[in-house]
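Please decode residue identities from the backbone states below.
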């Protein structure tokens, strides 16, 4: 025992000694220092002959008057069995002796320890004190209070040394799973907190995902290039209201007019040649034989002229229906060669708007028919555009950023005056699931993707 403890014992009130021990426990720098303080300097509180600190996971950890106990010594082995027996049968601080042990262990008590023992259990271990005189209630109360103070400092020391250890996690779980039997269940704060956490994790929430979205025309008329050529002029401007039959744009007519003129002249030449041979056929039988060939040639030239005339008419594109002309800057199209079928613009009916979203492959969730879709526009983030799911594309298609996504279309719940082309974030709502599934769905998917579990 230390000289400080020996000198502090005589003439000092037990409560002052208790306060001094508590202060020293709080300023201890290591767990070893705390263990030494418990088994040796506790003698200043009340006299005893031997003290042993026992830990459930390590056995006999510290002995009074011994620098380091020998784990395989007979005394240490017997003491470990005694402490384990007391920890299982004596959950509270009380005086013990051979009468509290099984006969196998009780027979050796007098060989190793004085007759009167005191068992001070704590979570994860206990302290066994042995004295030559019986333990009265006053001394038991003092040591119980000192044991609680020491255990608090010991727990803090252990936690600060390994803040994220498995031992600390097990200790916390044990604290939650072992309620205090002296209190009713509704006053068990740890048990109540654990129950609240479990209930919160099982609370049903709506499974939902976010996807980039925008407002697009519901049933637009697509205006595509009717022929190969170069666009010469636009008669409308972007976002301009047009009527059915109104000219939209036209192609460069010079090459088309040239082909039409050539076809027309070829037809006229074939007709003149046919008339000439028809007159000669009255007197020349050979000329009559050429009339059939010339008739076929006239039909061929007529088809070429009709096709050239049709191309000339199709070079002037008109609106198939009334609506709003949606296309890029006209200057980007004028003088640009286009191919047949290339999209030039769209004619959208005012008010017929729907939501288009792109659902990433990793966020694909089960979506029921008519599932709820909300579009939060970047220009109005505080209000959502309500829509109902119309369809989700069967196959994912590549996006401009290189990712693959499913096209989603949803019709608006009510007629909207929002402008077509506004972008934002679409929230797609799926089935109801527990909160724990909502939290772990993505992490589990990533683990399964990389690990295969």
């Amino acid at each position: 025992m230390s000289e400080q403890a020996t000198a502090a014992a005589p003439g000092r009130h037990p409560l002052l000694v208790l306060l001094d021990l508590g202060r020293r426990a709080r300023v201890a720098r290591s767990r070893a220092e705390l263990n030494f303080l418990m088994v040796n300097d506790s003698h200043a509180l009340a006299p005893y002959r031997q003290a042993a600190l026992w830990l459930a996971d390590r056995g006999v950890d510290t002995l009074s008057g011994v620098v380091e106990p020998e784990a395989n010594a007979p005394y240490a082995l017997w003491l470990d069995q005694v402490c384990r027996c007391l920890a299982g049968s004596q959950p509270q601080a009380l005086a013990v002796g051979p009468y509290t042990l099984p006969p196998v262990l009780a027979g050796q008590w007098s060989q190793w320890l004085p007759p009167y023992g005191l068992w001070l259990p704590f979570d994860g271990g206990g302290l066994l004190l042995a004295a030559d005189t019986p333990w009265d209630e006053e001394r038991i109360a003092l040591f119980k209070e000192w044991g609680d103070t020491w255990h608090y400092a010991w727990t803090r020391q252990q936690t600060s040394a390994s803040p994220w250890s498995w031992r600390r996690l097990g200790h916390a779980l044990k604290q939650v799973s072992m309620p205090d039997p002296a209190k009713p269940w509704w006053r068990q704060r740890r048990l109540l907190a654990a129950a609240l956490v479990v209930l919160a994790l099982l609370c049903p929430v709506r499974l939902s995902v976010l996807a980039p979205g925008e407002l697009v025309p519901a049933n637009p008329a697509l205006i595509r290039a009717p022929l190969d050529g170069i666009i010469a002029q636009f008669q409308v401007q972007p976002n301009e209201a047009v009527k059915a039959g109104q000219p939209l744009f036209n192609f460069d007519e010079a090459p088309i007019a040239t082909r039409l003129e050539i076809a027309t002249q070829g037809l006229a030449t074939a007709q003149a040649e046919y008339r000439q041979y028809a007159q000669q056929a009255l007197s020349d039988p050979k000329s009559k034989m050429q009339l059939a060939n010339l008739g076929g040639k006239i039909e061929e030239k007529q088809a070429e002229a009709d096709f050239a005339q049709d191309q000339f008419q199709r070079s002037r594109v008109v609106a198939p229906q009334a609506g709003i002309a949606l296309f890029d800057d006209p200057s980007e199209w004028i003088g640009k060669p286009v191919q047949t079928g290339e999209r030039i613009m769209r004619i959208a009916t005012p008010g017929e708007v729907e939501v288009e979203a792109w659902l990433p492959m990793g966020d694909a969730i089960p979506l029921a028919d008519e599932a709820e879709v909300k579009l939060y526009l970047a220009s109005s983030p505080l209000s959502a555009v309500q829509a109902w799911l119309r369809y989700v594309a069967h196959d994912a298609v590549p996006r401009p950023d290189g990712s693959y996504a499913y096209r989603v279309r949803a019709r608006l719940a009510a007629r909207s005056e929002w402008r077509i082309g506004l972008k934002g974030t679409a929230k797609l709502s799926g089935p109801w699931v527990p909160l724990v599934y909502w939290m772990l769905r993505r992490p589990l998917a990533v683990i399964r993707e990389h690990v295969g579990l």
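Observation: The longest strand covers residues 204-217.
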